[in-house]
Amino acid sequence: MGQNEILRREFLRLGAAGAMGGLPLRALHAAAGSSEPRLNVLFITVDDWRNEAGCYGVPEIHTPNIDRLAARGMRFDRAYCQFSICNPSRTSLLTGLRPDTTRVLDNTVHFRKVLPDVVTLPQLFRQNGWYTASYGKTFHVFGGADSQDVVGVNAGQSFDEAEIFKPTARGQQGEGRNLTGGEVRWCSWKAAEGDDEDQPDGQNARAAVRFLEQRRDRPFFLALGFHKPHDPFIAPKKYFDLYPVDSIKLPQDPSGRAPDLPHAIGSGWRTAFDRFTDRERREFKRAYYAGTSFMDAQLGKVLDALDSFQLWDKTIVVMLGDHGYHLGERGWWNKNTLFDLSARSPLLVWAPGMKAAGRPCTRLVEFVDLYPTLAELGGLRPPANLEGRSFVPLLADPQRLWKQAAYTQVGRGRGAQGRSVRTDRWRYTEWAEGREGIELYDQVRDPSEWHNLARDPGHAAVAKELSALLKEKS
Ligand SMILES: [Ca+2]
């Protein structure tokens, strides 16, 4: 099959998917065993968590609770954020609008400044009688790691209540270091003294468990925003002890030295990363793993509460990472690229009555699809201008033909944008509409995206078609 034919078939999928209806809501609600169709929502956002978990094929990381949720619901293997840093990604998925529509393209603009009247996802539920709460980081938190910025999380509009927790004095003590000698401020780890609840995420879990206990007699939308594994990499010491530093595997670069990042941001960071010793690389990855396992343990307390209070049959559960992350691949230790590592994110979904419970889904979905999906599951009419599509049908049949493309972008100063489109087979990226670079990767033959085929004459036709596909959403 030629490349044109592959793309043509991918194009046809859009039409096929557009003709599909959703699962009958009545069936879902009947399955929930209640005449009251108002399902609860537990919406869990994890900061900077890439597809790193046992259920995502990484056995060396300890994530029994993430794996437990994946086994109960549906694990999405190809879910893509729309912007691979915090604020634009979260604004997009919580408004159901793409970044070019929200115009929130960096971590400095609060979405209410540019979208004063937008009805956010939790706000839609609030307007329809759900009690809405946010613990931790749901919308982007302004003011740094220790901020308790409830304005940022949109308390009073999106949420009836919102709270952000701080570490205790004991939780700020411990052993650790900055891996760049202080040059890159955020790049530090600490194996903290104290226990889970000396850290904000332990307090997040405690608050969520109390909420589930107290609110279980009325419908709720609980947004739970875990801060870890985001930097600085602080977790109770017992989670670091899961990972002897010498056991940490480092990524292998087949060329001997990682090629430069196209349009690398934070060039000073890159210089500091280049000076890492293998020991420091292992310490970084170990600290990210410790934070992930710490977050997983807090998740476990919340899942236990769903068990104890018998909430599974009346509660939708969504868990996602707000974007992906590089753990040393291409010499990069952060997000904000347009490779699959940064654009792809974990997504787990449980809905009462879902037919395909326990099965994975490899179809392309976008985070902008979450708003219409949850609105449909909740039986609510979403705003008419949403830019995603409900993927409720995938919860019944994860193999049905679905979206042909997922779009992700990043900013690179002076308003220049990098824009990327992912199809089943390809990733295609243009920097500043192609004036500052083009990339094309064959995800089947080259899933690590080492070989840029954009200037290869044999791929000119496929590049042209993907450029047209990219412009459909640009
Ligand atoms: Ca983030």
Keywords:
Arylsulfatase, C-terminal domain, Alkaline Phosphatase, subunit A, nine-stranded mixed β-sheet, 18% strand, disordered N terminus, binds calcium ion
What's a quick, concise take on this entry?
This protein is of the alpha/beta class.
What does this structure look like?
It is globular, with a radius of gyration of 21 Å. It is an alpha/beta fold and 474 residues long. Strands 1, 2, 3, 4, 7, 9, 10, 11 and 12 form a nine-stranded mixed sheet that branches. It contains 15 helices and 16 strands. A hairpin with a 6-residue loop joins strand 15 (426-431) and strand 16. Helix 3 packs across helix 11 (278-308) and helix 8 runs parallel beside helix 11 (278-308). Residues 1-35 have low confidence and may be disordered. Bound molecules: calcium ion. Calcium ion (CA) binds next to loops. Calcium ion binds next to loops.
Mean pLDDT: 89
Identify low-pLDDT runs.
1-35
CATH class category of the largest domain? Alpha Beta
Q: How much strand?
A: 15-25%
CATH architecture of the largest domain: 3-Layer(aba) Sandwich
**CATH H-tier superfamily of the largest domain:** Alkaline Phosphatase, subunit A
Kindly report the CATH topology of the largest domain.
Alkaline Phosphatase, subunit A
Termini Cα gap: 29 Å
Count of discrete alpha- or pi-helical segments spanning 4 or more residues: 15
* Number of domain units: 2
In this structure, how is the largest beta sheet organized?
9 strands, mixed
Report the count of strand segments.
16
What's the shape?
A: globular
Overall structural class, as computed from helix and strand content, comes to alpha/beta
The distinct ligands, each listed once, are:
calcium ion
What is Rg? 21 Å
